[in-house]
Amino acid sequence: MTTTTSPAPSASPIAGRAAARSSRPTLQHAPVSGRLGHGTGFWVVAGAFLVTMAFSTLPTPLYPLYQARDGFATTMVTVIFAAYAVGVMAALYLVGHVSDWVGRKPVLVAALATELVAAGLFLAWKDTAGLIVARLVCGLGVGALTATATAHLGELGDRSGRARTAGTVATVVNTGGLALGPLVGGILAQYVAGPLVTPHVVFGVLLAAALVGVALVPETAVLPDPRPSYRPQRVSLPREARRPFAVAAAGAAASFSVIGVFTSLTASFVSGTLHVASHLAAGAIVFGVLGAGALAQLALVRVRPCAQLVLGGSLMVAGLAVVAVSGPALSLVLFVVGGVLAGAGQGLVFRSTIGVAVASSAPENRGEVLAAMFLAAYAGLTVPVVAVGVALAHFGAPSVLCVFALVVLVAVAASCALMLRRR
C-alpha cells in the first residue's frame, strides 16, 4: 500500500508581503516630553535657531581686529571662514540626519552645547590656531542644528496651527540670524570695551538660555522602531523627486556663495581697499545684504513660488552685476547697493530650494533631506570663499571681487532657469 503525502501549501503572495512588512522597522511618535506647549515651543526653537545663526556670523566685523592682534593676511581670513564651513558640512554629513532616528530635541541640545564650547574657545584660546579651531567647532554646531531646527519648526507648526508660516519662519530666522550677527558684532566692537571678548560673552549667555529653553520644548519626531544602525548622510527620495531636488540643490549652492564672500571678506574689503575704518560700517553692510533676504521673504510670502523664484533670480543677477562694477570702480555705494539687491534675491531663491526639499520628503526622512539641501548650500558657500582666498594672494581685491561676482552671476542664472523649467 502506498501512501501519498500532500504537498505543503505554498505561501500566498499576500501573506509574503505581510511578513515582509512585519520585518521592517515601524514608525512611532516619540514621547511628547517637555513642559512647554507646541505653540510656545515653536517660538523657543525659532529663537534658538536665530541666536545660533547670529553667533555663526558674529566674527564678520571683528576680522580686522583679529588680523591686528595676530598679524595674519587677508587670505588667512578665508582659511578661518573655510574652517567654519568645513565644520558645517562635516556635521551635516555625519549627524544632520540623525534627528530622524533619535528625536529633534537631543540633537538641538547637543548643537547648542557645541556652540557654547565654541564661545569658550574664542575667549580662552587667543591666537590664530585658536580662532580656526573655534570656527570649526562653531560650524559643527551649526551643521547639526540647521536641518534639525527646520524640521522641528515644521512639525511644531503642524501641531500648533502654524503650518502655513513654519517654512517662512524657518528660512527667515536662518537668514535673519546670519544678518543679525555682524550688526551686533559691529556695534559691540565699535562702542564696548573688550571688542574681542564682550561679543562672545553676550552670545554665550544667549546660547545658554536657548539651550535651557529647547530642553523644555515638546519632541515631535516620528521615530523608527527598532532604531536603524548608524550611517552617514544618505538621501532617500522617490525617483520622480530626484531631479527637482538636484536642481534645487544647485540653486542653494549658488545662492549661498553670495553669503560666503560677503560674510568673510566685507570687513577686509571695506577697511583695506575702500579705507572705511569702522567696525560698525562693516557689520551694517553685511546686515543690509543678509537682512534684505529675510525682509524679501517676509514681504513676498503670499506671492506664488514661481514668481518668487523669478524675482529672486533676477535680483541676484542684477545685484551681482552691480557688485562686479563696484570692485574696479572702488565705490562703496555700488558695493552696498549691489549687495542688498543680491541679498534680497538670495533669500527668495533659498526659500524656493527649501520648499523643494520639504515637498520631496516624507516625515520620517525630512531631517535627512533637509540636511542634504543644507549640505549643498554650504558646499556652495565654502568653495568660492577658498577660491577667492587663493586669488587674493596673487591679484588685487577689486579684480577678484569683479571676477567672483560674474562667475556667481552665471551660476545663479543657470540654476534658476533650470528650477523654473522643472517647476
UniProtKB/TrEMBL annotation:
Subcellular location: Cell membrane
Transmembrane segments: 42-66, 72-95, 107-125, 131-154, 166-189, 201-224, 245-270, 276-300, 307-326, 332-350, 370-392, 398-420
One Pfam family it belongs to: MFS_1
Domain Major facilitator superfamily (MFS) profile, chain residue ranges per copy: 40-423
Organism domain of life: Bacteria
Keyword Cell membrane: yes
Keywords: Cell membrane, Membrane, Transmembrane, Transmembrane helix, Transport
Topology of the protein relative to the lipid bilayer: Multi-pass membrane protein
Region (Disordered): 1-23
UniProt cross-references to PANTHER family, sorted A to Z: MAJOR FACILITATOR SUPERFAMILY MFS_1, RESISTANCE PROTEIN MDTM, PUTATIVE-RELATED-RELATED
Protein name (Swiss-Prot/TrEMBL): MFS transporter
Species whose genome carries this gene: Luteimicrobium album
